[in-house]
Amino acid sequence: MTTASEDELIEIIEIAFANVCLDDGTSLNMAIFKDSGGSALHYAELAKSDERIDWHRVITPALASFQGTFNFTDLKGFRFYVPAYMIWTIRNHRTSSSIVKDFTIYAINPDHYLFRDVPLVKWFTPLQVAAMVAFLEYCVANDDSLDGHVARENLSKIQSRCQT
Question: What is the per-residue pLDDT across 128-150, written as a single tens digit (0 to 9) for each?
C-alpha cells in the first residue's frame, strides 16, 4: 500500500516520463539475452514481443525477475525502464525481498558506464532528473528497507553535477 507522499512521488515520475518510448532501445528480454552472452536464444525470441510504447505496462510482479536490466540495456532502454523500476520499488520495497529495489538505486548513478559519453544530467530532461532526485531522497528516508547509503551517495553526485 502506498502513502500520500508515495502517490505524489509516483505522480511526479509519471509526469516526468510521460510519453517516453523504448523505440529501438534494448528491451528487458534482450538485456537477458545479452547477459547470457548470446546463448539464451529464447530471450531473443521473447524480446520480439517486449513492450516498447508504454513503460507502465512493465510494472508487474515479473519485473522483479529482470535483475540485470540496467547492466545490459542501452541509454534508450535506461530511460524507458527507470520510471517503471522506480515505481515498482516505491510500491514493493516493504514487502519484497527482491534485489531489484536496490539495483534501481545503484543504477541511478551519474558514474554508471552508460553515462560516460552522455552525462546523466544531459541524457534526461531536467524534469526527469528531478524525478530521479526525488526518488533517491525517498530511498534515503526509507533506508530501513532500501539502501539509503548508496541513495545518498548517488543523490550527492547528481546534485553536484547539476550545479556545474
Answer: 999 999 999 999 999 999 999 99
Residue 66, CA distances (Å) to 1, 30, 56, 98, 153 in order: 22, 11, 15, 10, 24
Q: Which residues of 122-161 are buried (b: 16+ CB within 10 A; e: fewer)?
A: ebbeeebbbbbbbbbebbbebeebbbbebbbbbbebbeeb
pLDDT, tens digit, 9 for 90 and up, residues 81-133: 999 999 999 999 999 999 999 999 999 999 999 999 999 999 999 999 999 99
Query: Which of 68, 79, 83 is CA-nearest to residue 33?
Result: 68
User: What are the residue ranges of helices labelled H in 36-92?
Assistant: 41-47, 69-72, 75-92
DSSP at 124: S
- Annotated domain spans of the chain: 4-163
